[in-house]
Amino acid sequence: MKRVVVDPITRIEGHLRVEVNVDEATGKVEDALSSGTAWRGIELVAKDRDPRDVWAFVQRICGVCTSTHALASLRSVEDALKIEIPKNANYIRNIMHSCLDAHDHIVHFYHLHALDWVSPVEALKADPAKTAALQETVLKTYNLSGLEPAETQSTTSAYPKEFPKGNATYYAAVQGKIKKIVESGQLGIFAAQWWDHPDYQLLPPEVHLMGVAHYLNILDKQRDIVTPHVVFGGKNPHPHYIVGGMPCSISMDDMNAPVNSARLAVVDESIALAKDLVNYFYLPDVLAIGQIYAKAGMVDGGGLSKKRVLAYGDYPDEPYSGIQNGDYFKKCLVRANGVVEDFGLGVDKAKFIPLEGEDLMNPDFLSEEVEHSWYEYPDGKKTIHPSEGVTKPNYTGPKTGTKEHWEFLDETKKYSWIKSPTFKGNACEVGPLAKYIIVYTKVKQGIISNPSWAEQMIVKQIDTVSSVLGVPAHVWMCSTVGRTACRCLDAQVAVNMSQYFFNKLVTNIKGGDTAVANTKNFDPNTWPKEAKGVGLVDAPRGGLGHWCDIKDGKTSNYQCIVPTTWNACPKTIANEHGAYESNMMDTKVKIADKPLEILKGIHSFDPCLACATH
Ligand code: NFC
Beta strands 366-369 and 332-334: pairing type? Predict the structure, then answer.
């Protein structure tokens, strides 16, 4: 048995350390731990503030899922104070959220994860003509762009002409560029990877060239797909918001107005570009890699997703009157709220457990433990609901700078700055895979009887991939490669979501409605002495919840349960492993000292430790 430490795991946001016990004879991971190695303390910063300002503080939890913490905070304060936002504000927030979702997934796949699958060294062996043909074949085989519904159509096209699809000359030029980098011996951003690992040999050189070419292209394009944040929120990262709506006034003919016809045209073009990048780059790249792994039977790493997943649902089609009262869930276009157990046995055998508005305030449903985390709870409490949540750091690990600090963590003690969230006392996986499992189960089992266009699209995407691969959904989905594929499919829904809400926004403005903010209840004198609120977002990495407690006009407590907290958590009191640890224990490692499979598995969650420890 060999103990292997990966610290820090690079190409992620923040400080993550993992340790695995590998049986070198079989490659089996017998035990695994995941540790967040730094703490932020932003929940404490959010305390005793004017609740109308808190979104701006908590948004700084993260610059990657920028905007999601602001949105969750606004929703929690509006839930507490019973503020309903105008239609335009709801549409604009949804455009910004979906735009972030697509941007986040695209950047994650290319710049944080792709090099676990494709290698610039292997790309040099590719035939550019065959690479161009491969891209076309994958596009035709899946024809996923054909799944886009009538609701999300646009006449704008922004395909980047400098990166022609299906063109051999373009791939030859990119190959020449990579050759120069590799021959110079200065791999730069491509250095420090285990390029000689046998997993890279699984893919033909053309898949490597296609992936690496698009890696380089997307570096250049990623800023252009977040311009909606700049138009509506003034900047990215960390765009501006306001409790009760949005701060960007609308006047179509005023060229100085924050939102006018010229600026909406810029948003339209940005959405069209994001759509094309997903349809012509991201989908073919991920599917070309994924089908080879799936056909080779390399579908390990499902871990906790087979057993239990959780999501909240998102994209309210129209303004809602509250979250605790359940109206939010009724309005969502993706009604993923709930938990699914045992999807690993197949969609027919999976068990759905509802999560409704009032459950969000019930400690029997959601809670956080600190059994293995460097925090302490008062009065011997073992688990606390976030509406009463306590964040009191108490580091008891090895002393920084000592020899012990660099050795192994002790999984029988406290070993992480991440708390352990639970649903009815159990760990859950969250993220696009979780959301896809829940929507698929709810629609297939008839729990959702009138699926929205987005829910129908999710089911069609899953069924299309399953039929091309010739395996049932749970077989390919519950795996490392399935997790990466669901993130890509989720990006396709996100870009269509941007288009859908953009179309609604323009129609509404043309109908004469230009309201963006509701100032009713903005005055603290109108507020109750005490109020509690919850704000939900299905963020790029999974279900995000903020709980705010307002007393005498101030936040008397503020707590967040964040997607990466769910996934990267240490063991629960019941000794259950979280999603990262389960993923590693469900993964075989070919070479203990080069655990590329562990990198792939952990990166498939798109870790964000800044978020996780907040
Ligand atoms: Ni940072 Fe976030 C966390 C996301 O996990 N998605 O909810 C926030 O980060 O990327």
Answer: unpaired
3-state secondary structure of 316: strand
For ligand 1, say whether the CB of 432 is within 6 Å of any of its atoms: no
Which among 336, 349, 540 is positioned nearest to 431, based on CA atoms?
540
Q: Ligand 1 test: best mutation among 97, 433, 608, 614, most atoms within 8 Å of CB?
A: 608
The CA-based diameter of the chain, rounded to the nearest angstrom, is 71
133 Cβ partners below 8 Å, 6+ apart? 166
pLDDT tens figures, 351-406: 999 999 999 999 999 999 999 999 999 999 999 999 999 999 999 998 877 877 77
Residue 496 is predicted with a pLDDT of 97
Q: Is 586 a pocket residue for ligand 1 (Cβ < 6 Å)?
A: no
511 pLDDT band, cuts 50/70/90, is very high
The per-residue pLDDT for 147 is 82
Mutation probe of ligand 1 site: the residue of 71, 98, 544, 560 with most atoms within 8 A of C-beta: 544
Closest CA to 36 of 433, 399, 573, 567: 567
Give yes or no for a contact between 604 and 301, defined as CB atoms under 8 angstroms apart: yes
Q: Rounded to 5, what percent of the chain is helix, strand, coil?
A: 50, 15, 35
Backbone angles phi, psi at 339, to 5 degrees: -130, 140
Q: How far apart are CA 514 and CA 213, in angstroms?
A: 43
Does residue 46 have a pLDDT over 80?
yes
Does residue 8 have a cis bond before it (omega within 30 degrees)? yes
pLDDT digits (tens, 9 = 90+) for 238-251: 999 999 999 999 99
pTM: 0.97
Q: Tokens for 259?
A: 């939102």
Which pair of structure tokens corresponds to residue 564? 């990466």
Could you tell me the two tokens for 93? 């927030």
How large is the C-alpha radius of gyration of the chain?
23
Residue count (the chain)? 614
Element (H, E) at 3: strand 2-6
Write out the two tokens for 406.
């660099």
The band of 49, judged by pLDDT with boundaries at 50, 70 and 90, is very high
Q: Is the peptide bond before 237 cis (omega within 30 degrees of 0)?
A: yes
What residues does 560 pair with on adjacent strands? 546
Euclidean distance between CA atoms 558 and 59, whole angstroms: 13
pLDDT in tens, 399-417: 877 877 778 999 999 999 9
Closest atom of ligand 1 to CA, residue 14? 1
C-alpha span between 421 and 357 (Å, rounded): 18
CA of 611, closest atom in ligand 1: 1
Quote the DSSP letter at residue 361: G
